[in-house]
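Hello,

Our lab assistant flagged a job as stuck in the queue for most of the afternoon. It eventually completed. Since we weren't sure the result was trustworthy after the delay, we are filing this so someone can double-check. Below is the sequence as submitted and the structure that was eventually returned. Let us know if re-running is recommended.
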Amino acid sequence: MTEASLLSRIIDYAHRADPYPLYEELRKTPVLHEEEGGPYVISSYWDIESLLHDPRISSDAANLAAAGDDELSGGESTGLPPSFIRLDPPEHDRLRRIANSSFGPPHRPRRIESMRGELTEIVTGLIDGFGDARQIDLVDRFAYPFPVTVICRLLGVPREDEPRFRAWVDPLVASLDPETRTGADDEFRRTAQEARMQLGMYLAGLVEQRTKEPRDDMLSDLVGSRGPDGAMTMMEVLSTAVLLLIAGHETTVNLITNGMLTLLRHPEILRRLREDPGLSVNIVEELLRYEPPVQLVPQRTCITDIEVRGVTIPEGSRIWLVLAAGNRDPERFHDPDRFDPFRGDIQHLGFGSGIHSCFGAPLARLETQIALSELARRLENPSLVEDPPPYRRNAVLRGPRHLNIAFDALR
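-- returned structure --
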């Protein structure tokens, strides 16, 4: 294999089911730059962690646009201003502080934990919905509808509106996949545009309503913030809500689906989870290392010359941080290609690190812990119908598009 072909092979859909041998090859060249104007690709754990904390690395969408788009680093197609994950300090910090104040400590320390009962109720309903079926597609029947329902509850979407909310989300989520964007026909683009417009109008109406009649939900908190950073504008609230919806949905679908796939490939650990649901905490952390839902971060630009491993990366260059390669770096983790929820050190990069570490991590962790422990408890003798399953085409948000599971009965 030549270095010149390595990046294209990593992106190639033919290797989506198992990119890890290619990541191993990638780590032999910790700073890979294949062609003039192309990205600098970073693959070792310590380098990635350092750059995620480096203020000379920008996440601002304007800097990325100036550096020139590539097939993975295209912008968000939401029709809204950039969300705070695509901004740098101080604007990033202001918006994230306001969002955090309604999402967790210190202002709302129990917001996520208090949802445990509701999350379990949603999971129970979805599994009960399998009915008499003895084979299901876990993505379509469970992993896909679960997180969007949770986000609806968190934002304060009335339950009677959840079905049409989900109908808008489906084409919007599909339109963010790079493969779909490039291959979409006119009808699909019109459908996605209509969904964006309808979702935006609906959320704007809900924000207006919460401004006048606040409730105990996240939208009310965002529009009613009275802290030192003030309140978000209407457009900032909409961008943050759509960020929660899109980022929170896609990563959690992949985490649950990758998780069940991994457990079915490791039946002894699945058995132990069935006997001890508390093991789900360790399992989810190891999944975030072993099969992270976000494989790489391509939306970074350096705002001055920086040096990594003796290589000078010029100002304005695009940088890709391959989190999944860093998570299996043998210089950081012992026996990194082994799935081991009992390893003593699982300080992974699955949720990133630094100021852009995953905003929704506490919710995604809890959702996945409950989902996997309940699936393990209730599915009698589950098995994979197809291994490997068909994967989504997205190289950044990697996960099965379908995961067909057979089982003998529902407990």
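-- support follow-up --
The delay was a queue issue, not a problem with the job. The result is valid. The chain has 17 helices and twelve strands. The mean pLDDT is 90.
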